[in-house]
Write a structure and sequence with these properties.
The chain is mostly helical. It has three helices and two strands; from the N terminus they run ββααα.
Length: 139
């Protein structure tokens, strides 16, 4: 008798092996589909994060372009730094450069006053100790 034709409880052994393989294949496909679904959910989450980050990048680029506007920078430099456009009288010729090099760039700076050291200002003798109360007040 051949092992292909051998019968177990009325079923051929080949049929039982084929049924077992079919069950294993069905479970394998089900598990693969479940894992793929989880991966698909992770991919969708990452894609949503990418879209949100791209939107944030566009927003930050718009903010940078607003902050870098020359008119705004000019207004801020005039307001806070006291800067102004260079006047025509400040333009020099090439022949004037040696004379300009001999001139000082700015007025002399006023000397800074030094703050006295508090440890040197301390009195020579320590202060007298506070008197100790001899009687406790009762309520």
């Amino acid at each position: 008798m051949n092992w292909l034709n051998r019968r177990v409880r009325g079923f051929r052994l080949v049929d039982l092996v084929a049924l077992g393989l079919l069950v294993v294949l069905i479970l394998g496909v089900y598990l693969a589909k479940t894992v793929a679904g989880g991966e698909r959910a992770k991919i969708a989450t990452v894609e949503r994060q990418i879209v949100a980050e791209n939107a944030r990048i566009r927003l930050l680029q718009a903010e940078v372009s607003h902050l870098e506007q020359p008119a705004r920078i000019e207004r801020l430099s005039e307001t806070y730094l006291g800067l102004a456009p260079v006047s025509e009288k400040r333009v020099a010729d090439l022949n004037d450069l040696p004379d300009l090099a001999r001139k000082p760039l700015a007025l002399p700076v006023k000397a800074v006053e030094v703050t006295p050291d508090p440890t040197r200002m301390a009195p020579a003798e320590p202060a007298a100790p506070l008197p100790v109360p001899t009687q406790v007040a009762e309520r």
